[in-house]
């Protein structure tokens, strides 16, 4: 996700930052960035977390546009859901923050 300040909507930025604010999700992103794409069961083993918890965190990351998923069949016919880091190049600058703030639709509580 390569974004210019005027292209990154404030709600998108909030979703990305919220997704990355969780230590499990940051670890998932770090693992995928270092090791490349992988399927859920292997990720769960490598990260030492349960598959249901991993699914929850992967869904948050995917909703925020930080990871992508693709179903594939293994040689033995099993369906495997592979996840990878989405293309990402966001530089937090004052200009990006100002542009994002101007496009927010989410209202503070």
**Uncertain stretches of 5 or more adjacent residues:** 1-6
Tell how many strands the DSSP assignment holds. Answer: 3
CATH secondary-structure class: Mainly Alpha
Per CATH, the architecture is Orthogonal Bundle
- Major sheet description: 3 strands, antiparallel
C-alpha geometry: elongated
CATH 4th-level superfamily: Winged helix-like DNA-binding domain superfamily/Winged helix DNA-binding domain
The CATH topology annotation reads as: Arc Repressor Mutant, subunit A
Domain tally: 1
* Class per helix and strand makeup: alpha+beta
Q: Describe the strand arrangement of the main beta sheet, using strand numbers.
A: 1-3-2
- Listing every helix as H and every strand as E from the N terminus to the C terminus, the arrangement reads HHEHHEEH
The residue-averaged pLDDT reads 90
Tally of helical runs:
5
**What is the alpha-carbon Rg in Å?**
16 Å
Distance between the termini: 29 Å
Domain HTH arsR-type: 15-105
Organism: Duganella qianjiadongensis
InterPro entries: ArsR-like_HTH, HTH_ArsR_DNA-bd_dom, WH-like_DNA-bd_sf, WH_DNA-bd_sf
Protein name: Helix-turn-helix domain-containing protein
């Amino acid at each position: 996700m390569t974004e210019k300040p005027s292209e990154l909507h404030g709600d998108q930025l909030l979703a990305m930052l919220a997704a990355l604010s969780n230590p499990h999700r940051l670890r998932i992103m770090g693992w995928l960035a270092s090791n490349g794409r992988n399927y859920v069961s292997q990720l769960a083993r490598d990260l030492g977390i349960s598959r249901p918890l991993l699914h929850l965190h992967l869904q948050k990351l995917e909703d925020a546009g930080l990871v992508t998923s693709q179903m594939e069949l293994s040689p033995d016919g099993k369906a495997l859901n592979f996840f990878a880091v989405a293309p990402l190049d966001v530089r937090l600058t004052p200009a990006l923050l100002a542009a994002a703030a101007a496009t927010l639709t989410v209202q503070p509580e």
